[in-house]
Structures are given as C-alpha cells and as structure tokens.
Write a structure and sequence with these properties.
It contains 5 helices and 6 strands; from the N terminus they run αβαβββαβαβα. It is of the alpha/beta class and 184 residues long. A 4-stranded mixed β-sheet has the order 1-3-2-4, with helices on one face. A two-stranded parallel sheet has the order 5-6. α4 links the parallel β5 and β6.
C-alpha cells in the first residue's frame, strides 16, 4: 500500500508472513498435471525463500524479470526505486516451452493497479500462457486477484480455474469476464 495512492485496496491477508508457502507449493504440485509449468511472482525481498520452497517439488528452470514501465514507491530517499518484479518459472515433468526461445527479461507496462494492489498486465499473461499451454488446456490461478488470468485465457482460447477469496475481487473478476462475453 502506498500512501500516495488515491484509491486504497484491501490489505492482502498473510502478506506479512510466508508460513503458508511450503504448504501452498506442495498442494500446487499435487493438483497440477504432469508436464506442466508453474509461474510464481515475487519481489526480491523473498526470492530465495520462494525458490527454495518451489524447488522442493518442481524443477526451477529460470527466474524471469518483469521490467515495468515505471518505478514503485517505497523508501523515496534511502533506496533505489524498484522497476521490476521476479517470476520464478518451474516445471513439473519435462514440458517444453512453445515457440521460439525468448529472453527471460519481460518488458510490459504496469497496469496502474486500479483493480487490485498486485494487478498484472493481460498481455504479459497471454504471452506466458501461450508459451506454456495449447488451446483448450486448463490454466489454474490460485490467487486470481482481479482476474487477469481469466481474461488472458479467454483471449487465447484456454480454459481456466480461478481461486479468489475476497468477495470484492470476485465481483471485479465476474464483471471483467462478463464484459468480454465469457462464462464465469
């Protein structure tokens, strides 16, 4: 949460602890089919903890760097301004990426987080989904937020399963899907 934002979002539950992480990764591994990919967004503050937890179950293939079009706020005078976010890319089984070999540097504009405090760009999700699945595959997003994954799946002819616990964000997701003429 930035004190400079006009709109305030709900606080993200358990955002101040990673006690849930190992259980989450274990359950993600359990429910994902063999020969699938796993993407996990995280900041530099805990990348080592996330990577250690993920590699207990998945084969970590790379750490992607999402370069945003502008910087975050944070400590305005005592730190460098963050302009990136990490994405741990891992796989279960031996699934290859689709298409050509792309760079691990992803340059996509920030969304401005109008719908959710950690909202991601649809075009970046479309890219990742197309690299890791084929039409009619099912994409799982256990932290659906504002529904970016659903929009990217609709746009790329994939099916999706979203999990989101906050009613406010479920309403946003349903509206975004409805606006595209998709099914909830």
């Amino acid at each position: 949460q930035s004190n400079h934002r006009k709109e305030k979002h709900l606080k993200i539950e358990n955002d101040n602890t990673l006690e849930w992480l190992d259980d989450f990764v274990q359950q993600a591994y359990r429910v994902l089919k063999n020969n699938t990919h796993f993407y996990c967004f995280c900041s530099w503050h805990h990348i080592d903890t996330f990577k250690q937890s993920i590699q207990k179950y998945f084969e970590v293939k790379n750490i992607l760097v999402w370069v945003k079009n502008n910087t975050g706020m944070g400590d305005l005078y005592g730190d460098y301004a963050p302009k990136h976010e990490f994405i741990i890319y891992a796989r279960k089984g031996k699934r290859k990426l689709n298409g050509r070999r792309d760079s691990n540097i992803l340059e996509y504009k920030r969304t401005g987080n109008k719908l959710h405090p950690t909202e991601k760009p649809v075009d970046m999700f479309q890219f990742l989904i197309e690299k890791s699945s084929v039409e009619n595959d099912i994409v799982l997003d256990p932290f659906a937020g504002s529904g970016t994954t659903a929009i990217a799946c609709i746009n790329t002819n994939r099916n999706y399963i979203l999990i989101e616990k906050e009613p406010e964000y479920i309403e946003i997701i349903n509206k975004r899907i409805s606006d595209l003429g998709g099914d909830k």
